[in-house]
Amino acid sequence: MESKVITYPGVDVTVKYDLKRCIHAAECVKGAPHVFDINKKPWVDPDQGEFNELIEVIHQCPTGALTYVRHDGGAEEPTPSSNTVDVVEDGPVYLRGDITILSSDGELISKETRVALCRCGASQNKPLCDGNHSKAKFADSGAIREVKMKPIEDAEVTSLTIKLAGNGPLLLEGPVTVNSADGEISAGGSKAALCRCGASSNKPFCDGTHKAIGFEA
Fold first, then answer.
1. What percent of the chain stands above pLDDT 70?
2. How far apart are CA 170 and CA 216, in angstroms?
3. Are 174 and 208 found together in one domain?
4. Number of domains in the chain
5. What value does the mean pLDDT take over residues 48-64?
6. What is the predicted pLDDT for the residue at 153?
7. Strands, DSSP E only, in 108-185?
8. Distances 205 to 67, 94, 119, 169, 178 between C-alpha atoms, Å
9. Quick one: how far is CA 205 from the chain centroid?
10. Structure pTM?
11. For the segment 116-125, what is each residue's pLDDT rounded down to a tens digit?
12. Number of other CB atoms surrounding residue 59 within 10 Å
């Protein structure tokens, strides 16, 4: 999982931008165009925005490409109180919450509050989405069809662990709600396997097709 972080220091806050995570969701440009202006160099100027407005806009970045460091010693970005997976039409899954990502052998890859994970199989920076779903012409409505999730059994567990199955799906364990792209259907539970090869007939859930197509990751 690659990263390329560029920093933009301001008087009150330093904005960090991970180029490898950005898939141009454009929440920053829409939310604070006076701070995030792609027609200027540098394109980020933290001093052009009011402090609270700026950090709230950064919180809207679904990939975690934008983060910040406060200079006043105040609290950093809060961890969401619940874990969610939002399926994006023809795109990745956006996750928010108290998230731990593990490799197939159980080693820690990263801790996250916001992240976009590939579900088309074409990303060159797996498990992160890198925008290659567009080049690969990945097409999926983001609907939830047959729900395959185990019910929540341990109410004391609040964090979500995501383990990357070798050449297979994203294995989710912990309380989580999966939302369809149109927002009409939500499925909750504590265990699920999400497709990341792009070929499941029951997207966003895995149906084992990765084995038949020889998916490697």
1. 100
2. 13
3. yes
4. 2
5. 96
6. 82
7. 108-117, 149-150, 160-164, 170-179
8. 30, 14, 10, 8, 10
9. 16
10. 0.95
11. 999 999 999 9
12. 19
Structure tokens that stand for 46 in this block: 């933290």
- Rounded to whole angstroms, the Cα distance separating 149 from 139 reads 23
**Residue pLDDT, tens place only, 127-162:** 999 999 999 999 999 999 999 899 888 888 899 999
**Cα separation, 129 vs 91, whole angstroms:** 8
| Pair (98, 66) in one structural domain | no
d(CA 198, CA 39): 35
The domain of 11 spans 5-70
Tokens representing residue 197 in the block: 């090869």
Q: Are residues 166 and 121 part of one domain?
A: yes
- Confidence bin at 75 (pLDDT 50/70/90): confident
Any idea which residue has 């983001």 for tokens?
142
Q: Which two tokens stand for residue 160?
A: 């979500």
Closest CA to 85 of 172, 202, 155: 172
Same domain, 62 and 91: no
108: left (phi over 0), alpha (psi -120 to 50) or beta: beta
For the cut 90, the answer to whether the pLDDT of residue 26 exceeds it is: yes
